[in-house]
What does this fold into?
Amino acid sequence: MGYRFLNKTWSARVKDVEQLERKKSQEQPRKIQQVKACAYCKTHIPEDEGIYQDKQFFCSYQHLDSYLEHKK
Ligand SMILES: [Zn+2]
It folds into this structure.
């Protein structure tokens, strides 16, 4: 019974969070996904899939490493 109670409380909480998130996204429209060019290979990839390092953008950690290696 205790488990059931907890379970119900938890799912109710999740619902609250979901509603809050929905409200937030209504107030603030989701940012349109930006496409950025990797500073090393110039490949354009979605911003949230890349890595930012010192205001530079990279498609992968390999290219971040390579770029820093070249700079030396
Ligand atoms: Zn790259």
